[in-house]
Amino acid sequence: MSSPDPTAARVGSIGTIGIIARPQSPEADDVVREAVTYLDTRNIRTAVEAETAARVGLTSHDTYNRDDLPSKVDLLLVLGGDGTLLSVAHPVAQRAANTPILAVNCGSVGFLTEITRLEMRDALASVLAGTAGLDERRMLRARVIRDGGEIADRIVLNDVVIGKSTRSNIIDVSIYVGDRFVTSSRADGVIVATPTGSTAYNLAAGGPIVHPTIDAVVITPIAPHTLTNRPIVISDSAPISITPTLPDDHFNASVSFDGQVSIDLEDGDEVRIARASEPLRVVRSESRHYFAVLREKLKWGER
Fold it and tell me: Which terminus of the chain is more exposed, N or C, with fewer CB under 10 A?
């Protein structure tokens, strides 16, 4: 077990804990009931996301929709996989950026939801005791500009992906960092990933793993036409601008935000990406450090 970091930020006083669970997951539903029972014995008020409450039969508790819940609680307990955490990252950043998240893995991969079900009670106990450490995960704000107007504005924890459609020809994308032209890439698309998202689509596309404490952004081409077009790691202090060239019906592309929301792009659209004003605050696992998670999930050292 890793030793607690005495310099780490800590969770503050907790009066109400909100609960969101992965839909269509019997295991997650069981963990919801377990968590509510445990918190009731500790006289901690719980508020449950409305769909989760209806599914699990907790309608006697306070319920809120997913977007409103983060601003109503002192801590958000997210039960599911990485996708469940990604689905709440945007509403937390939009409505209650200072609300910390305790993510418990009821899924499969669990790069982000690194606390296991067996560790949940100990993690909750450390939160209530005020000893739980927090990791601050940098996020990105992405906006889509069309004809001078904004048609989308999302905050992401993992990545922004500009990609061609299944039937489209390979596309050209022009990339700027600040006011400096970087390259025009001919590829299936491009990924702009946070350090947290470096172990997601970015990794599958051949991009590097970046430690989550580093203030950086990774730009990774997807199946580039030119093999010398490689991923690049840059500071997150400068905004990024990406414009796809879509001259006719043979070229189609969309932009995806954390794999949760997707918008079709038109020729001339510009995707502007910058560091979000606030990080996502996630309760740290005290039983394993970041490199232990990498070893486990990527099966390093196995033969």
Answer: C
Q: Which two tokens stand for residue 288?
A: 């394993």
How far from 6 is each of 3, 123, 128, 137, CA to CA, in Å? 9, 17, 17, 19
Other CB atoms within 10 Å distance of the CB of residue 206: 13
List the structure tokens of 128.
């209530």
The pLDDT of residue 21 is 93
Domains, the chain, ranges and CATH?
9-138+279-298 (3.40.50.10330), 140-275 (2.60.200.30)
pLDDT digits (tens, 9 = 90+) for 137-148: 999 999 999 999
Closest to 172 in 3D by CA, of 186, 188, 189: 186
115, pLDDT greater than 90: no
Task: Measure the CA–CA gap between 68 and 54, rounded to whole angstroms.
Answer: 16
Task: Name the residue among 211, 194, 210 with its Cα closest to residue 273.
Answer: 194
Catalytic residue among 82, 135, 159, 236: 82
Rounded to 10°, the helix 26-41/120-129 angle is: 40
The answer to whether residue 147 is catalytic is no
Calpha distance 177→14 (Å, rounded): 41
For residue 140, the tally of other CB atoms under 10 A from its CB is 26
pLDDT in tens, 181-229: 999 999 999 999 999 999 999 999 999 999 999 999 999 999 999 888 9
56: nearest Cα among 48, 67, 64: 48
